[in-house]
Design goal:
- The model has no long low-confidence stretch (mean pLDDT 96).
- The chain has 2 domains: 182 residues, NAD(P)-binding Rossmann-like Domain (Rossmann fold), CATH 3.40.50; 166 residues, Rossmann fold, CATH 3.40.50.
- It is built from 13 helices and 15 strands.
- The two termini are 21 Å apart.
- The chain is of the alpha/beta class and 370 residues long.
- Helix 1 packs parallel to helix 2 and helix 6 packs across helix 7.
- Strands 3-2-1-4-5-6-14-15 form an 8-stranded mixed sheet, with helices on both faces. A 7-stranded mixed sheet has the order 9-8-7-10-11-13-12, with helices on both faces.
Length: 370
Amino acid sequence: MWIGVPKEIKNHEYRVGLPPAGVRELCEHGHKVLVEKNAGAGIGLSDEAYVQAGAEIADTAEAIWQRCDLVVKVKEPQAQEYQSLRPGQILFTYLHLAPDAAQTEGLLASGATAIAYETIVDRQGGLPLLAPMSEVAGRMSIQAAAHCLEKAQGGSGVLLGGVPGVEAANVTVIGGGVVGLNAARMALGLGANVTILDRNLGRLKYIDEVFDGRIKTLYSTVDTIEKQLEIADAVIGAVLIPGAAAPKLVQRAHLAKMKAGSVLVDVAIDQGGCFETSKATTHQAPTYVVDEVIHYCVANMPGAVARTSTFALTNATLPYVVALANKGLRALTDVPGFLPGLNVHAGQLTCEPVASAQNKPYTPAEDAIK
């Protein structure tokens, strides 16, 4: 099989779908890999390194889309990319379709097969290909919040960890999953006062035990969220419903209760965001202000640390890429938990949460690929 690796074209996105080691692994299995020129240059992966690993170098992205049976990316395809897809071609990448009707329509019209990293599950029900980037984004959310709190950035001028004799910042994390846990760990390490809200009592108990009570845990309700917003200097939105649009847990009316210069970091923005006032931003222009509250809503946060993110992601994705290359679509049923990753196949929408969010017809994945 021919596997293609195009250069990412989203704003300030330097990650790459496969590093040279991944290319070599595929070549060892007898496959051919076509990598777009300078696809990994932004993180120090040269074309020469790819050639040494066994890849061919394509001068243009068009060559990737025209020649390859399987295309491996990082971020969701932009309009010019999904318009280049063809029937029978397999796209393997993050999709985040629920809030993106235009991309969904483009993928359906292409006739291609689109498999999403973020909806593949493991034997325990976890999300193994989302977890690495959730770890990165969770940790980065605290760096972003600390920076935004600086007065020169429009913030309240609060140091996250305080100093002896001066109170530390209050950080509220909504959601105790992978993002929330990593955000809390970073904030605690910097000396902030940290509170995690979640509705999973088992998860709250786990967090309390792991951190020996140093992180405050609260059951998430409308009332609890409102009270936390009043005292928080930084709020991290870390809520995830796999494949579905994120619930809007912080409303516009809540902002009036928050401190001027406080910060909202919406890590759920790829799924539409969990704050009513959230809108996707870029690393080039990461923030905006609503009612004196700073919003940081960058849709590809891990792209800022692209080298770390690439290796963390491809460590997780490579076994699935190899399985697809070796078996084609049969890999979806042969590899446990792979089938839920199928979001679009031959003009059919096969992810129920996306179909529900966009009020579109849904076809079960197992029926679509028969």
